[in-house]
Amino acid sequence: MSDKIKPTHLQRKAIVYVRQSSAYQVENHVESRRLQYAMRKRLEQLGWNDIEVIDEDLGCTASGAVTRSGFDRLVAEVSLGKVGAVAARELSRFARNSQDWQKLVDVCRWVQTLLIDHEAIYDSKDGNDRLLLGLKGSLSEYELDLLRMRSVEARKQKAKRGELILRPPVGYERDPKSGYVLDPDKRVREAIALVFKKFFQLGSARQALLWFLEHDLQLPTRENAPEERILWKRPRYCLLHRILTHPIYAGAYVYGRTGETVTVGECAPKKRRRMKQREDWEVLLVDHHEGYITWKEYERIQEMMAHNSNRFQSDSHGAAKRGPSLLAGLLRCKRCGRKLTVIYTGRAKNVLRYCCCRGQLDNGQPRCLSFGGDNVDSRIGEEIVQLLRPARAQIAQRAYESHRQGKNELLKALEMDLEAARYQASRCEKQFNLADPENRLVAAELESRWNRALSEVRSLQRRMDEEVQKNTDHTSFDADSFQKLAANLNLVWNDLRTDVRIKKRIARTLIEEIIVDVDDSAGSIDLLIHWKGGLHSKAQVRKRKRGQNSLHTDASVVDAVQSLSRILPDELIAGCLNKNGLRTGKGNRWTGERVTSLRNKRGIKKYSEKRRNDEGVMTLTDASKHIGVSTTSLRAYAEQHKITYSHPLPDGPWIFNQKDLENTQTKEWVERIKQHQTRGAEPKQPQLNIDISGTCPDVAV
User: Fold this and answer.
1) Of 189, 457, 512, 639, which sees the most CB atoms within 10 A?
2) Comparing 456 with 320, which gets the higher pLDDT?
3) 77 and 104 in contact (C-beta within 8 Å)?
4) Regarding the domain delimited by 164-308, which CATH topology (the fold level of the hierarchy) does it fall under?
């Protein structure tokens, strides 16, 4: 027996501390655990009878990252002076960090408790032993760091060769030779591929999620249990986002996508996993294995998702939503360089406006500009339709192919689900047939499972029949129908039934951005369109004055009324306006009362014979009678711009002024017309008779 062991030590109990660092060690390192429990016999040989074993920390690391209840209980027992010795196979079992180790040594020093391992006995009150304990504690901590560093570096080197095969995401399986291979289950592969198809078709992860939810389709997930079974669940946004952003689906091997950050909380530091930027990934090997998409398609997905971000960034357009604003995220202020914000005004908050208000919101600066958005959207829509017009045939063909493939996607997914449900029902039937009929407890449960499986088969079959019937009812849309729609591209674009999200995606595909400025003096909105590919074009939209709105009568109609009021009364003016297809600001037909109301609001004088005679204005018929020529000749003369006239409406009266009809140039033209009419038609040279008797002797003349 060692002279360090005193009777006072033997009068108190001894504690054997048993710990292994991980669950893997607990399961596989059985011999190491037996050696640790064997320290009980060593304490018995040293003279202790009251021995307690603390093994609560099996599977817990001693690095200080987790709380160890067994170690805390050991320190508490020692600090109360109830323990004469604490023992472990190795001193590194107690702790591998300086904080816990020094705490245990200091407590043992003050209450005179010995530390025992399989080689020696240490008294922390002794200076040499305390120095040795400090060295062993530092070596234990360094040993852990060294082991961790070697392990991490070995994993990195293996990952750089693409040989470190970790747990694959759903859609892939481990392969000892090639690393990752596609899942052999066709249903899983088709479901993953459908996620990417719907994202490219709908333009955002959320819209793809809503499509799956609308059609009640499930997506596969991998269970976190050791079996890693495939489970089919109702899709969630995080699942689609994980599939769309993971580079493994593009055939790339990646390692080090996440990093660990430590945040200091109220109680203790917390470690969190954060996604790194692509340039910070430790390993990225493109074309490592077979993928569901190409690497270019993966980069396109990441770019689209970055543009769909709701954060107000200079290069982000935001996702295409159901709002009526066509140019949301595309307009940039020429004055300050900031992007314009979409706002809705009016009583019902349905009046679209574009406003440069970021400076006011962020820095308290005055607003740069603001204008109504309907006219601007219409003008840019015309530019887009004009640009797409030469490619109408190709657009119609692509639309027809997309329509035909889209009809089959849902049916194909339902066929896969139905086939899986039938297999499950067949499996349940076999289990029920193999069960002992007399064991009703087991047979009843198996029968219930079989019934649920058959009910799922019937439900899927019913949905299949409904989709087939729906597609049969809509088979009239053939290639010629799409060609006809492409021929009327302008009507399709302006149709209220056209999905505004599709128009927004077309606009963002063709347009990089639009620089906009407002010229208040000219009353116009100046647009500089930056097309994809580097081309630029200019456009100008008339800006309404303060107080005007979409219900105001068009300015061209007001000008026409002002001109026609000189020669026609209000009732006849209303007839001319209706004949030319013009309507009021509210879309109504014109009447005499409405023309009178318009004149009064705009300060236009009323028609009168006295005013007409004083101003000397005449219609085409009156003017032709006044100068004595036909209406056809006078109209032709006016169209040659040799006389001043007014023609406010395409299908309306011509207006002449008496002074213009009586000037010298017009009088000379009238004289020439009259002289030509009095001479009549005279032969310019004598006509000769033709004798055809000699040329056709057989014909009687």
Assistant:
1) 457
2) 456
3) no
4) Hect, E3 ligase catalytic domain fold (3.90.1750)
- State which amino acid sits at residue 319: A
H/E segment holding residue 393: helix 392-434
Share of the chain above pLDDT 90, in %: 15
User: Which parts of 234-335 are beta strand (E)?
Assistant: 253-255, 258-264, 269-275, 283-285, 331-333
Q: Cα dist. 376→316, 450, 496, 531 in Å? A: 21, 62, 17, 16
DSSP alpha helices (H): ranges in 237-316? Answer: 237-245, 295-307
Whether the per-residue pLDDT at 680 is higher than 70: the answer is no
**Three-state helix/strand/coil letters over 611-644:** HHHHHCEEEHHHHHHHHCCCHHHHHHHHHCCCCC
The Cα angle at residue 553 between residues 548 and 557, in degrees rounded to 5: 135
How large is the angle between the packed helices 205-214 and 186-202, nearest 10 degrees? 120
Backbone angles phi, psi at 362, to 5 degrees: -90, -40
Structure tokens at 100: 């816990």
Tally of CB atoms within 10 A around 586: 10
pLDDT(682) > 50:
no
Mean pLDDT rounded to a whole number for the chain: 84
Q: Please give the biggest Cα pair distance in the chain.
A: 167
Q: What is the DSSP letter of 252?
A: -
The token pair that represents 230 in the structure block:
């495939």
Please state, in angstroms and rounded to a whole number, the distance separating the CA atoms of residues 643 and 623.
12
Contacts of residue 74, Cβ cutoff 8 Å, sequence gap at least 6: 15, 17, 54, 83, 86, 104
Centre a 10 Å sphere on the Cβ of residue 646 and count the other Cβ atoms it contains. Answer: 16
- Listed in sequence order, the residues at least 6 apart from 518 whose beta carbon sits closer than 8 Å to its beta carbon are 369, 371, 524, 525, 526, 543
pLDDT > 50? residue 688: no
State the distance between the two ends of the chain, measured CA to CA, in whole angstroms.
164
Count CA atoms closer than 13 A to 86's CA, side-chain side. 31
Tokens linked to 436: 């002992």
- Total count of residues recorded for the chain: 701
Q: Where do the structural domains in the chain lie, given as residue ranges? A: 7-158, 164-308, 315-549, 555-678
Identify the burial level of 349 via C-beta atoms within 10 angstroms of its C-beta, where 0-12 means exposed, 13-18 middle and 19 or more buried. exposed
Give the pLDDT score at 118.
86
CATH homologous superfamily of 7-158 equals Resolvase, N-terminal catalytic domain (3.40.50.1390)
CA distance 92 to 214: 58
Give the DSSP per-residue string, 56-75.
Answer: TTTT--SSSSS--HHHHHHH
Alpha-carbon distance 590 to 610, whole Å?
26
Q: Which of 516, 506, 252, 253 is CA-nearest to residue 384? A: 506
Q: Write the DSSP symbol of residue 339.
A: B
- Tally the C-alpha atoms within 13 A of residue 4's C-alpha that lie toward its C-beta: 16
CA 402, distance to chain mean position in Å, is 20
Q: Which residue has the tokens 């309507």?
A: 583
Number of H helices, E strands in the chain: 26, 23
Angle at 192 between CA 249 and CA 308, to 5 degrees: 75
287: left (phi over 0), alpha (psi -120 to 50) or beta: left
Q: At what angle do helices 186-202 and 237-245 cross, to 10 degrees?
A: 90
Q: Average of pLDDT values for 496-500? A: 83
CA angle at 37 for the pair 36 and 43, rounded to the nearest 5°: 95
Q: Which of 586, 583, 581, 525 is nearest to 552 (CA)?
A: 586
Return all residues near 141 (Cβ < 8 A) that are at least 6 apart: 96, 97, 98, 101
pLDDT tens string 353-375:
899 887 777 777 788 888 888 88
- Contact indicator for 296, 252 with CB cutoff of 8 Å: no
